[in-house]
Amino acid sequence: MGKQAKAVICRELNKPPVVETVEIESPRRGEVMIQMGACGVCHSDLSATNGTIPLPPPLVLGHEAAGTICEVGEGVDDIAVGDPVVVSWIPVCGKCRYCVMGRPALCDMGARAAASLPDGTSRITDANGNPVNHFAGVAVMAEYATVHRDNVIQIDPDIPADKAAIVGCAVMTGAGAALNTAKVEPGSSCAVFGAGGVGLNTIQGCAIAGAEQVIAIDMSDKKLEFARTFGATHTVNPASDGDAVAKVLELTAGGADYAFECIGLGATIMQSYNCIRKGGTAVVVGVSAPTETVQLGAFMMPFQEKVLTGSMYGSARPSIDFPLLLNLYKSGRLKLDELVTATYSIDQTEQAFQDLEAGVNARGVIVF
Ligand SMILES: [Zn+2]
Ligand SMILES: [Zn+2]
User: Fold this and answer.
1) Which ligand is nearest to the CA of 113?
2) What is the pLDDT of residues 1-15, one digit of tens each?
């Protein structure tokens, strides 16, 4: 017995996503169905609609959500109907090499579930009876979603769904890059390129870690204003302040300890690498188009011992990090209320995507 649900679907690349009523299949063995409470509108959803993240339409979008378990499949005995959950867009299998070594963000099972559930099949059927793909292996921009058990983390019931939802992508990815991937040290200097939903969370991650200087770089003064709210001590708008690298080198007297690229462009990845000091760490958080490349000067590499690394989902360990981040929220150290600057109904999806593209929100969230 499945469920009818309104869902946000990318039907055709480079066209706005549409809202359709689809059929969500009941959970199979090892799966659960979620009645969605809220789903954030993330830049990655937009990237799936324009081909930057190359996944085949038709595709139900959404990968940043919270809701309540409404049905469990066979063999699921550690979570029950009525339990509140946040969706993790990587399933943590617990068995592969990467899970065992404590790096579940790199889980092999997650890598297989890009446009389907981990077993390669869909639980969504459209009005014509055709299967629809699952974005990021979850497809949670819908009233209901069936996902693998390993894609949900149980949370306390007293956290509002719109705040809990954004922990599942923007907050985990951004704050995790600072706290988990780079392990930012107290008293350090950080430069963050891009102050969108993820960048703002990298900024607050750096601030929570006790960074002395957090320099936000963005071409939008509005986003730089948000950045100050989330803990940026300095802001740089290259359009009015000139070269970002020169500015960071000047502000940090020789280079930042850490730089984070939260945009997904070869040019800003180069800037991140070029603005860190000897022995510093540059972290690539933004997802680039597959054609994007990075060109770095090779000569100085051995002399400077810089580290350039990626950060997948903030090096998330969802069952540890989601509760930890939500506890930081409850104690007032992690800003979530300030992040959700607009909520929409699913029928206002078009507006939500327009606002995302226009950059008017810190984060927009669809509330069901
Ligand atoms: Zn996302
Ligand atoms: Zn695994």
Assistant:
1) 2
2) 699 999 999 999 999
